[in-house]
Structures are given as structure tokens and as C-alpha cells.
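Re: [help] complex structure
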Amino acid sequence: MDFFDMRWDIIWNYREMFLHGIWVTISLTICGYLGGLILGILLGLGKTSKRKWIYWPAKIYVDLFRGTPMLVQILIIHLALIPSIFGQSYGFMVSGIITLILNSGAYIAEIMRAGIESIDKGQMEAARSLGLTKNKAMIKVILPQAFRRMIPPLGNELIALLKDSSLVTVIAANDILYASKVVAGATFKIWEPYIAAAALYLILTFVLTKIITFIEKRFSNNFNPRKKNTGKKGHSQNKDEGQVAA
Amino acid sequence: MIKIKNLHKNYGNLEVLKGIDYEVKEKEVVCVIGPSGSGKSTFLRCINLLEEISDGEVFIGDVKVNDPKTDINEIRTEVGMVFQQFNLFPHMTVIDNITMAPIQVRKMAKKDAEKLALELLDKVGLQEKAYNYPEQLSGGQQQRVAIARALAMKPKVMLFDEPTSALDPEMVKEVLDVMKQLADEGMTMVIVTHEMGFAREVADRVVFMDGGYIVEEGHPEEVFGNTQNERTKSFLGKVL
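Output below.
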């Protein structure tokens, strides 16, 4: 094949299809991620629970979905699970989003668990010793700190999910990769459509990485003062030196 | 105020507390001393049930702490605790650290809670740090904030778990001064400490623990000045 004889005008002719593919990929990723976030928070809390009937179902779920390929999950859900529950298929979008939610939920659960467990035990003890219930201590003390630590791995998961969403092509979802396959089939050109797909995914992940880096910088683990009210004067001289008036 | 009867605590096969009987009267300041691993901290943490009690009974006032019917959260509002590692909440400003529990647990209005917090900060000499974050404070300042945070619940008893052990030497005094002031005001306090000078000066009673038992107990002058027990003698010989 002649590498320098690329016909990029073919891609341009199919631009509608690629644009639609981008749209499908983005909606699959966003819906899957947001759903996965909710599911993951619940499962992650379940995995930190001391109650066995909460812990074990959460653990088995996470192990199941992290231990099997997403490609297999997509096929089982689209071809077997949904038809046998509802008697019909609701199309690739529904199957795709459900799979992405169920799959990313398992990964996000692990991120949650690790984030919660990374917070020093003394934080929970301090909160409980003040009379807070376990749930309140979780909401007010543990989770706000854990979420800050979870931002980087959650960002990784979002990027991984965007790329993994290309697997829904196997159930004929018309995402970016599907557009390339169609173009390749119709024009017998291989390089151009698949390079176009790779480039589009690359652009999407690049933009996402930039956004995530911004969020990381904004919220990451340092608790910078917002300079709210440091200049309060009048009440005391500088007692910084630790001289407490007896 | 605090009554402890035949308190046992095991971690699996390891028996940390082997039957403790003790009573802390109102307004009394009790210092618990002893070598590391003697069960001092565990003893203290059993009082507000941060450690589950394996056997025995702990009463605060008339309420049995380790009774399944007791609302432990309510007990804990009456028992302030100060930790070795301060355990301030790093994502909150100093004032939010202090007002959080009164607002969440006592349902105090935010304005009242902040007023109370500023009073307490004034008491520990840190009012101008109210809107700083804990990480901007020195260890001694953090520990004083932690004391203010515990006091905001208006507890009847304060428990101190080696409050100065994690501090640089020059910051120990500022924390001990706050505790001394608290003792002078009549707060009931149980203090696990290695500060023998402080124990001798401030405590009403000194308890020496070793190997999961209370080995010796008495007025500080008796324990330090006229030591009876051999183990106490050898311990004090090493630390004094």
C-alpha cells in the first residue's frame, strides 16, 4: 500500500457519520459515567460496611464486573439479559449505557473504597467522640476528604470509559468506531477511517485530560485558605507564641 | 462521675485490660501514667466506647455506657475527647471545626455556635486563627483548637489521650497551660500523660498502670513522693 496516497477527502465525505459517532460516543460515556458514579458510590459504601449482608453482595458484584471482559458483558446484556427480562431489545443505546453504568460502577466502587479507607482512622474517631452518628461523620468528615483524593483516579476512570465505550460497536451502536467500520467497508480504504477514529478518540481524551487536570488543581488535597477573614483585629494581641494568659 | 467496674478488654487472645475498678469523682483531675503497652490509652478509650468493652461495666453519671439500650452518641456529647494526633478536620477552617458538632448534634443555630466558638478560641488564645485551616497552625495551636472543639459540646468530662506526646517540646507548655486552666475551672478530667511534672502539679489523683492492671493509685504526693509499689518505683526511676 502506498502510505503517501491517502484519500482524506473520503473521511470528509462521511463527516456527518463521524460527527454523529462523536455524539454517540460522548453520550454513552457521560450517561455511563454519571450512572456509574451513583452506583459506584453505593457499592463503595457497601464495601466499607461492617454489615455482612451489605458487604458481601457489593463485593461479589464488584469482583464479577471487574473480573469479566466488558465485551462479554455487553453481549450478555444486549443479547441475553435485556431480551429475556423485557421480551424485546431497546436498541444499542439502552444496552450500551446499562453496560457502561454497571461496569464503571464496579471500578468506581473500588475507587470509593480506597478513598474512604485512605482517610486516617482518627478522623472518624474524632467525629464520633463529638457525638456524631456514623452516617453524619461519613457525610461531614470522611467523604469530603475522600472525594478530594478520589479525583485523580476518577479522572482516569472517565478516560478509560471513553475508550472502552468503543466496544459497543459490536452491538451495532453507531459510535466513532462504527463510522470507521462502515467507511472502511464501503470504500475498501483501511488506513484513513481507522486513523480518523483514533485521532477523534485522541482529541476527546486530550480535552478530557485538560478538564480533569483543571479540576484536580482546583480541588486537590491542599486545603488552601480562601482568605476569608484573616484580618480580624481588636480582640487580642498576637498570641502566636503560645503564651496563654493564665 | 465515672465508675468503672471490673473492666476487661481483649483483642482476640491478647488481654489488654485485666479487670480495672476505678471511680472518678466530679471535678476531679485524674492523671493516668505508666509504660507504653500498659493499657492506659485503651482504658481511656473504653470510657467513651471508642473501644468495645469485652467485659465489665462503665458508668458515666448514672448511665451504663456499654448497655445496648444506651444511645452512645448522646453519652459522647457529654464526654469530650482530645487525641494525641489532634485529629482536626483538615478540610474545615478552625471555626468550622468547632461549630460542626454543636450545629449537627446539638442543633444549635449557626450564629450562636460561632459566637461560642470565638469565646472558646479566645479562651485557648487563638481567636485570630478562627478562619485559618488546621494545616496553617503549629502542633500546639492545633491541639488547643482540638480542646476548644471538644469544649464546644459543653461536656461534663474531658478525656485526654497523651495530648502533648506528638508535640515539639517548646509547644508542650501552651497545651498544658490550657489544660491547667480547665482543671482550675473545675472540669472533671482523665488525662493519660507522660508529663510527670504536670501530673504532680495538677492532678488530684494519679493512677499508675502496668500490664493491664492499676498497680498503684493515690494523691500525687503519695505516688511520686512515697512510692509503695516496686514497679511504680522502677518506672518513675526511669522517667523522672
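The CA atoms of residues 104 and 215 of chain B lie 41 Å apart.
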